[in-house]
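Lab notebook, design round three. We kept the backbone fixed and only want residue identities now. Task for the bench partner: fill in a sequence for the structure below.
Input structure tokens:
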């Protein structure tokens, strides 16, 4: 089969590799669409923490089951599926609680123990399969990032206010925007330094959009929400000052959910966290329950997510896909590769 590799920084290559073996508890999936994630872009640039070129890319996919292992029940050839791309150890307290995302020993695609998804076939344990139901295969490729969005928004307390500020308007942030009203948020402001992203945010449902290069976010938030309104803030951009910015904007009692992966060291004044009694919550990946929620949202509101998939590439156009995502000379939010 053909597989897409990051051969070296900024160079995509194709390799002929063996179709992976389908174990007794596994299924073999013929891939249909592959989602390009920001972490794939990090690997393409040679900046990923553990996916070091040369490496088979990818962890987002949709496809059709080609073959099932002899122990697999409840799945058959022809079923349309996606995959939760993390396999927990099954023994630690996190796994026992259904929080595979917090397992220190979890296995991820693009590592020695599990190939990436960017190939014509992919093998996964039946335990991490997700039934796509009526979701089209193209939309099925974004179940994984939508599960990230679901997990993040469910990190807010159940009694949150109706006010939501989303810092950043990338793919996952826009997915959070798309589902926010389903979670009780009614007044929503989004930010981004790219006006094209903000235009899309407006179409998706943001009440107010702000470009921080053109206006002060704290002033705009105070004008829209009220200076004493309790906010819910999502950090969905990777600037190394953005956490401090969120803490500065937050009003007393606000909730901040932080899913952006920032590895740079920060110098942070923590006094406002105490003085304002802020609730700061991290959000890592997803659980199986989040995947089920993501599929349900795609079934109910699929059309709303089509606008987030701004680009579709052929399998042989992977280099172009990554170059466009890297340089951003043309408008791009979320791209998928058709196998």
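Proposed sequence:
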């Amino acid at each position: 089969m053909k597989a897409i590799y990051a051969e070296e920084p900024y160079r995509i290559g194709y390799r002929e590799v063996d179709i992976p073996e389908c174990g007794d508890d596994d299924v073999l999936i013929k891939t249909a669409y592959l989602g390009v994630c920001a972490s794939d872009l990090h690997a393409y640039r040679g900046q990923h923490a553990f996916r070091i070129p040369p490496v088979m890319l990818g962890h987002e996919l949709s496809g059709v089951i080609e073959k099932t292992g002899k122990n697999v029940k409840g799945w058959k050839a022809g079923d349309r599926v996606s995959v939760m791309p993390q396999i927990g150890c099954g023994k630690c307290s996190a796994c026992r609680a259904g929080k595979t995302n917090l397992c220190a020993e979890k296995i991820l695609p693009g590592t020695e123990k599990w190939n990436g998804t960017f190939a014509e076939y992919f093998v996964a344990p039946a335990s991490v399969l997700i039934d796509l139901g009526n979701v089209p295969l193209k939309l099925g490729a974004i179940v994984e990032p939508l599960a990230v969005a679901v997990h993040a928004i469910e990190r807010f307390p159940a009694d949150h206010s109706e006010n939501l500020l989303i810092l950043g308007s990338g793919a996952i942030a826009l997915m959070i925007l798309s589902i926010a009203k389903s979670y009780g948020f009614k007044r929503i402001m989004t930010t981004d330094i790219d006006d094209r992203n903000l235009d899309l945010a407006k179409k998706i449902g943001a009440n107010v959009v702000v470009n921080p290069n053109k206006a002060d976010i704290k002033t705009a938030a105070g004008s829209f929400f009220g200076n004493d309104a309790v906010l819910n803030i999502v950090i969905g951009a990777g600037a190394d000052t953005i956490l401090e910015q969120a803490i500065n904007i937050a009003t007393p009692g606000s909730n901040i959910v932080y899913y952006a992966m920032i590895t740079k060291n920060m110098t942070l004044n923590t006094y406002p966290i105490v003085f304002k009694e802020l609730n700061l919550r991290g959000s890592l990946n997803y659980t199986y329950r989040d995947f089920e929620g993501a599929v349900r949202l795609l079934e109910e509101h699929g059309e709303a997510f089509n606008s987030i998939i701004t680009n579709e590439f052929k399998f042989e156009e992977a280099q172009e896909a990554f170059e466009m995502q890297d340089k951003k000379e043309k408008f791009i939010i979320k791209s998928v590769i058709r196998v």
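Keep this in mind before ordering anything: The chain has a mean pLDDT of 95.
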